[in-house]
Amino acid sequence: MPDFKPVRGMRDLLIEETKQLNLIISNARKVAKYYNYGEVTTPIVESHELVSAKSSDEIRNRMFTFQDLGDRTVALRPEFTASIVRLVTTVLKKAPRPMRLFSVGSVYRYDEPQRGRYREFWQSNYELMGSNRPEADAEMILLTSYLLKSLGLKNYFFKVGHIGIVKGILDQEQVDEKTQKEVLHLMDKKEYAEAFSQLKKDNVKSVLQSLVEVKGDDIFKITEEMRLQVKDYSKAKDAAINLIEILKLVTSSGCSIDSIQPTFSRGLEYYTGLIFEVQVPELEISLGGGGRYDRLIELFGGISTPAVGVAHGLDRINLALQIQGFESGDKKIKKIFVIPISEDLRIKALNIAEELRNSGLFVELEVMGRKVGKALEYANKLKMDYAIIAGKSELKEGSVVLRNLIKHEQTTVKLENLLKKIQE
Ligand code: HAM
């Protein structure tokens, strides 16, 4: 037999990793509940045309694309946004606006595998459609902060920009779409000289250069300076004012924004307004990112609808939590192993296990018919807290032996006192 391994870039998540991922997913669902996002489930396989339109060359060139048996060109979804926009332009066309939709699941990109970069990874995704107001943009940053805070992640910080500032300048200067895409891409990579060399007019280069040079710690001073620099470009100026409003809303809610990136574009073609990412100092990759995309729905054939959204990289959040020494709350719940001493005590042992489970403990029953010694060896290997040994003579007295597997002590305990004793 060949030595079967997961395909390169794919991972098996074993018990602890799956538990940790599920914990993050359940927090993401809680965020959806508190912010009133309805959860929808869309297919992993989508039409290639849908997921490749308006994403980015980077994503388009890294999709898992194939022909299905019906000769359709399909792809594994590289993100959720296109699928959600498909819903909004079709079956949810008439649903009331604003519409808040949440999804969670695996997405696929043929990225070069490395720490925090996988070919199959998990996202929690939130889209708010129908509002062009800054409150909607602020909500994306706030719910991201809520999720990370609820997981106990420390020192996370937001990088914020507004694609409308650079786009506003390039639009007013009638720079064609293809050049705009190239300039944004190069500026995002901080290859400014190369970016400016794509432009013909010196005044455009100089206003973009002045944006690049805006620096400082005070986010409001920076954005105000940006606003002044682009004052001759009406759309760019409106974008700067919009960014200031969003920042005011976010910071007034107690969430701090750490840096403003005037030339940040996040590599997705559909953004039109706010863009942001969240990071931790321990990792150089983003844990989540999002932004406003006011034209995507109409480009997909829907009624023109402003929209904003965010996706969180759950594997990266998990990695960041591990690096910060996160301990799951589950660890505090006692794990118990119930061992019947003989075959005829199986029913009694099962009843004890069920009762303790109903009281909120994690209980495993010995199901291999092993002798106590062997069963205890197993319980120790699995780092359980207690073993309950159900023996005939003790049960006759209404008791069992309770063995503390950490302290290596044991006592005989009445069944009615068992829970109290374990929880002491
Ligand atoms: P994105 O920035 O492409 O945005 O991905 C969001 C997050 O997914 C990233 O911040 C990162 O945490 C995670 N991620 C991306 N690539 C990988 C990878 N190869 N391995 C592990 N994690 C990864 C979007 O997907 C947009 N759809 C977000 C959005 C929603 N914008 C508006 N609405």
What is the CATH-assigned architecture of the largest domain?
A: 2-Layer Sandwich
What's the CATH first level of the largest domain? Alpha Beta
Structural class: alpha+beta
User: Strands across the major sheet, in which order?
Assistant: 1-5-6-11-10-9-7-8
Strand content: 15-25%
Task: Provide the gyration radius in Å.
Answer: 28 Å
Main sheet specs = 8 strands, mixed
Shape: elongated
Given as residue ranges, the uncertain stretches (5+ residues, pLDDT < 50) are: none
**The CATH superfamily title of the largest domain:** Bira Bifunctional Protein, Domain 2
Helix content: 40-55%
- Subunit arrangement of the protein: single chain
Tell me, rounded to a whole number, the average pLDDT. Answer: 95
Kindly report the CATH topology of the largest domain. Answer: BirA Bifunctional Protein, domain 2
**For the terminal residues, how far apart are their CA atoms?**
52 Å
How many individual domains? Answer: 2
Identify the bound ligands.
histidyl-adenosine monophosphate
General description of the model:
With 424 residues, this protein is of the alpha+beta class. It has two domains: 15-323, Bira Bifunctional Protein, Domain 2 (BirA Bifunctional Protein, domain 2); 333-423, Anticodon-binding domain (Rossmann fold), CATH 3.40.50.800. It has helices at 15-34, 48-52, 57-60, 81-89, 134-150, 163-172, 177-188, 192-196, 202-212, 219-229, 234-252, 296-299, 314-323, 346-358, 372-381, 392-396, 418-423, and strands spanning 38-39, 45-47, 65-67, 73-76, 99-108, 120-129, 157-162, 259-260, 274-279, 288-292, 307-313, 335-340, 362-365, 386-390, 399-404, 409-414. Strands 1-5-6-11-10-9-7-8 form an eight-stranded mixed sheet, with helices on both faces. It has a five-stranded mixed sheet with strand order 13-12-14-15-16, with helices on both faces. Helix 6 (163-172) packs antiparallel against helix 11. The longest helix has 20 residues, at 15-34. The radius of gyration is 28 Å and the shape is elongated.
